[in-house]
Amino acid sequence: MKKILTLLALGVILVTGIYASFYAFDNISDTYDEHLDVVALEEDPTNYDVTGADGVADIIVAQNIERTGAENNVAAVVFDFRGFDTLGESFILITSVVGSFVILSKVKKEEKEEEAA
Amino acid sequence: MKFKDGIKEKNIIIKCGSDVFLPFSLIFALYVILTAPVGGGFQGGVLGAAAVLLIYLGYGYDVTRNSINPEILRINEACATTIYALLGFAGLVFGANFCRNVFYANGWLTGFVHDGTIGLMDYAVGYNVMTGVGFLLILMLGFLAPVEEAKKAKKKEDEK
Lengths: 117, 160
Hints:
heterodimer; A: mainly alpha; about 75% helix; B: mainly alpha; 6 helices; about 70% helix
């Protein structure tokens, strides 16, 4: 029964993931500059319009406020477009805290037992 | 100041140094965190956690353990991660994707946080790192503690 439930849950997650990836492929907007064709850019970088003062950085600065409403571009990337990344960082920290807490408190317990014995 | 048995009193110069530098380091850490939209959450948090090391250098493990409660730090770290996730969900509530910046032009909170939820998320990261790294430092300094060694030596002497 447990195995069937696990498989069912994993199947639901898999189907949802496949649907979400297809949906994302069509509908989710780009980070900056919707009109950028990545394949064409990779084949011929000189085609891309970088006539502004700083090239691509100019595009980012121009579109930043309209896209995120943030004054700072770095903060916009770190906490808005790549918010999942920062969330993962804090999960890494909490995992390291829990792990070292478990290991070190076990070592301390063993030392105490040795002392008692 | 009276210490427990078996603890040597530290050098007066080291104690005065930690006394003098502790408030400045904490203020600098808060300054780095509170200039949030530039993205100083992680760095400021680590600077704040270094206060644990300053107290340890000046006064030893027992005073550090008595002045900062590691259990409270652990609970606070979980709270900070939850706060970050909830602020990320604020984007979903207001009809955009996860971690989307909201509240920036609504007139609400704009005087206090001039970058919307991005600034609040940076504060949450600083809170998270400060408590988490501080807890890790206290946990690891517990293994350098001279107290238990002194107690063991005393026990051996008593047995003899």
